[in-house]
């Protein structure tokens, strides 16, 4: 039987290049179904050269879309082309969520919200420290630095292979953020209450340097934004040393919630069934 929910109600997209591996349709589809809402959420691949034209059509109302998610490599362009980027996306220079309000295309970035919500859920009290260490200074690191700073960490040490990139982020995010080369990792970990890996090290079974976490504060939380595999080499090591660890899958799930609420009008919840569904999908389609 035809399901009318698939063809009626608001339609949101996820765009990227490529976009076929995105698990966002699975997440939003689950929420539409469990909340019994009319609406749809689809993959919409757009090549970089065509992205500006796509946003123009979106603003003109000649697409079926009420808004959507934006992923690599369009996040910076999405921020630049929106009518009303919010202060969060403005500081990052990148947006992952677009929606309309009073005819204007608004943009925000929910990666930091997703990062913090994941830790709030799985490691309550994670933010009760002054000092954090963030490994990596790429695109994904920015939202993490912003979130950690906004949750009150007063000393944020960004450690990166290319120190210059860490320096740029320290300049961007203010006086609490300090840049270091990889060689300083052990030293800056002393007494830190949070360690975050934002690099691709250990992703998809790749190599990761062995890090000892024993200089962290005893009640520190160690987290990785990589979620394939769920237990990355960094998390495995930290767990063996007795630290509280949080995998990165919850960040993906939680970053999706604010967009869903804007497009479809209801705040969804991240539950165990959703998490398991995404884990099953990762195993079926690695
Ligand atoms: P993303 O947007 O996903 O963060 P990115 O911008 O390519 O991706 O950044 C990847 C991060 O992983 C960077 O911090 C990168 O370090 P450099 O800035 O020195 O390139 C880090 N990274 C990737 N491979 C690495 C490796 N083999 N050793 C150390 N750091 C690595």
Architecture overview:
This protein is α/β, with parallel strands linked by helices and 286 residues long. The chain has 2 domains: 5-109 and 251-284, 3-Layer(aba) Sandwich (Rossmann fold); 113-247, 3-Layer(aba) Sandwich (Rossmann fold), CATH 3.40.50.720. The chain contains 11 helices and 12 strands. Strands 2-1-3-5-6-4 form a 6-stranded mixed beta sheet, with helices on both faces. The longest helix has 16 residues, at 249-264. Residues 1-6 have low confidence and may be disordered. 2'-monophosphoadenosine-5'-diphosphate (ATR) is lined by residues 136-141, 160-162, 165, 198-201.
Describe this structure in a few short sentences.
The protein is of the alpha/beta class and 286 residues long.
Q: Which helices and strands, and how do they pair?
A:
Elements: E1 11-15, H1 24-34, E2 40-43, H2 51-60, E3 67-70, H3 75-81, E4 84-85, H4 87-92, E5 97-101, E6 104-108, H5 111-122, E7 131-135, H6 139-150, E8 155-160, H7 163-173, E9 177-181, H8 185-188, E10 194-197, E11 221-224, H9 233-240, E12 244-246, H10 249-264, H11 272-284
Parallel strand pairs: 1-2, 1-3, 4-6, 7-8, 7-10, 8-9, 10-11, 11-12
Antiparallel strand pairs: 3-5, 5-6
The structure holds 2'-monophosphoadenosine-5'-diphosphate.
The site of 2'-monophosphoadenosine-5'-diphosphate has 14 residues, from helix 6.
**Residues in helices, as a percent range:** 25-40%
CATH architecture of the largest domain: 3-Layer(aba) Sandwich
Give the distance, in angstroms, between the N- and C-terminal Cα atoms.
31 Å
* Overall average residue pLDDT: 96
Cα gyration radius (Å) = 19 Å
Order of adjacent strands in the largest pleated sheet: 2-1-3-5-6-4
């Amino acid at each position: 039987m035809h399901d009318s929910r698939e063809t009626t109600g608001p339609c949101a997209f996820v765009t990227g290049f490529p976009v076929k591996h995105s698990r966002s349709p699975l997440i939003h589809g689950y929420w539409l179904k469990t909340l019994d809402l009319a609406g749809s959420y689809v993959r919409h691949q757009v090549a970089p050269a065509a992205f500006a034209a796509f946003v123009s059509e979106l603003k003109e109302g000649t697409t079926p879309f009420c808004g959507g998610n934006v992923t690599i490599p369009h996040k910076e362009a999405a921020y630049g082309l929106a009518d009303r980027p919010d202060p969060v996306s403005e500081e990052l220079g990148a947006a992952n969520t677009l929606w309309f309000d009073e005819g204007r295309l608004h943009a925000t970035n929910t990666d930091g919200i997703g990062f913090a919500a994941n830790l709030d859920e799985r490691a309550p009290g994670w933010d009760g420290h002054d000092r954090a260490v963030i490994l990596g200074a790429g695109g994904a690191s920015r939202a993490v630095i912003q979130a950690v700073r906004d949750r009150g960490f007063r000393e944020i040490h960004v450690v990166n292979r290319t120190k210059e990139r860490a320096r740029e982020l320290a300049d961007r995010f203010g006086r609490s953020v300090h840049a270091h080369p990889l060689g300083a990792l052990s030293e800056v970990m002393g007494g830190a209450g949070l360690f975050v890996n934002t690099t691709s090290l250990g992703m998809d079974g790749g190599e990761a340097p062995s890090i000892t976490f024993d200089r962290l504060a005893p009640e520190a939380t160690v987290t990785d934004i990589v979620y394939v595999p769920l237990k990355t080499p960094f998390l495995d090591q930290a767990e063996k040393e007795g630290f509280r660890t949080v995998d990165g899958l919850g960040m993906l799930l939680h970053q999706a919630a604010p967009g869903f609420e804007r497009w479809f009008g209801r705040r969804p919840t991240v539950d165990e069934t959703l998490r398991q569904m995404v884990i099953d999908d990762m195993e079926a389609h690695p």
